[in-house]
Amino acid sequence: MRCPPGFLLCSLLLVAPHCTEVAAQDVQPDPKMPCANWMGGAPGYPGHNGLPGRDGKDGQDGLKGEKGEQGVQGPRGDQGEMGSPGREGPRGFPGQPGPKGESAFIYRSAFSVGLAERAPPPNVPIRFSKIFYNEQSHYDPSNGKFLCNIPGTYYFAYHLTVYLMDVKVSLYKKDKAVIFTYDQFQKNNVDQASGSVLLHLSTGDEVWLQAYGEEGNNGIYADNINDSTFMGFLLYPDLDVH
């Protein structure tokens, strides 16, 4: 049967695309080859760097490292504010007893007297009957003697006016002369004889003044403008007794 030329042309046009599709399905390009077996083109330029990614999560803590060497001491800082008082500490043990102190009680013993008349003969106590101070009555003006009532250390002194004759006088403690004073009188003049001493006395000890020697050695004198005085007072008592 003979087909018309127009029919054949149409058939070829319909079959040609199908064959082309089949051929395209049978022959697949190799993706590893450039341009899929076609002629490769020139390599492209590298792309731009991408943006940094976000920080990842913290990892686990590592092992503790070895202790490093001590660094150089830094400058001293400013003084901080005073902190609040801390708690009261425990009570300490009692301390050792301290040395024995002086007594709170004040011991007094003192006198100051003067001559009111001519001195008595030598070798007997001189009676100073003019009383300047004798508050404790430890001096007896009737016999001229000081009686110790408080054992301790005492200071005694005398200042005598010398007139008309020489003076030899001594201070006695318990019937024993302790110190001696001698003044040679100068005519038409008034002299002074004096002495002082520190003594330790026990309770009951007596202290007094008396002239010694002959009658011509008793020139102790006193009037309304010249005095002869005798005094004494306690410096400090014996603490081991009181």
From TrEMBL:
Keyword list (alphabetical) reads: Collagen, Hydroxylation, Secreted, Signal
- Please list the residue ranges that the record marks as compositionally biased, kind Basic and acidic residues: 54-69
Major localisation: secreted
- Give the start-end ranges of region Disordered: 44-99
Indicate the segments forming the C1q domain, all copies.
Answer: 104-241
Instruction: Enumerate the subcellular locations listed in this protein's record, separating them with semicolons.
Output: Secreted
What is the annotated signal peptide range for this record?
A: 1-24
Organism listed in the record: Crotophaga sulcirostris
Q: Which Gene3D superfamilies match?
A: 2.60.120.40
Q: What is this protein called?
A: ADIPO protein
GO cellular component entries:
collagen trimer; extracellular region
Q: Which InterPro entries match?
A: C1q_dom (IPR001073), Collagen (IPR008160), Collagen/C1q_domain (IPR050392), Tumour_necrosis_fac-like_dom (IPR008983)
Please name the Pfam families in this protein's record: C1q (PF00386), Collagen (PF01391)
Key word Acetylation present in the record?
no
